[in-house]
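Q: Could you fold this chain for me?
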Amino acid sequence: MKIRRHSKDYNFIGDTITGTTFRWGASFEKNPKYAPWPELADISISNH
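A: Sure. Below is the predicted structure, expressed as structure tokens.
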């Protein structure tokens, strides 16, 4: 499954099967330091 998020100055693409992620800004030359929102969430349900 592919995940894609984008805004004016931020782009994110992730592949849930391989774990590969790509992040870039308004262009490939402008790399953002931080994501404006959480990119991924890792949730675990257990009995402990």
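A (continued): The mean pLDDT is 78.
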